[in-house]
Amino acid sequence: xxxxxxxxxxxxxxxxxxPPPLIFLALLxxxxxxxxxxxxxxxxxxGVTVAGGLIAVLGSVLILLGTPRHSKAGSNVEPWKPTxxxxxxxxxxxxxxxxxxxxxxxxxGVAICGGSIGALVTLVIAVAVIRIxxxxxxxxxxxxxxGETYTSYKAMVRRWL
Length: 161
Fold this sequence. Notes:
Largest sheet: none
Radius of gyration: 17 Å
Oligomer: single chain
Helix content: 55-70%
């Protein structure tokens, strides 16, 4: 299907209505609330705080490297807005979803920093929700809109890592 015929009777977006950062944040806070010492006014140990902090910084770097590529390419980062091009350079050369990967890494880092097994459990749930609710929709949309351009990219670059 060529670009001119894409989704003639549908909106030009992936159909995602809940912002992915909100999904990660809601599940992270739920997990932290369940068992983090932070909610009792205490800090975690120095080792886990530093380790988790470093992991969260790594995830933040991925987000910060991926997000500006959308505006530079003249496309939208929000999945409820139209995608105008497939970005294949920079962090998109090794992950089709570097921003979601970054969000997952930040979630994991904060969970570790907060000493929360509950937040690690909700990380698994968040990744599953993002995969099923967001990424699956985005992939169907991008295949319909960009055809071979997207399927070739998809064949060369992994979904997460």
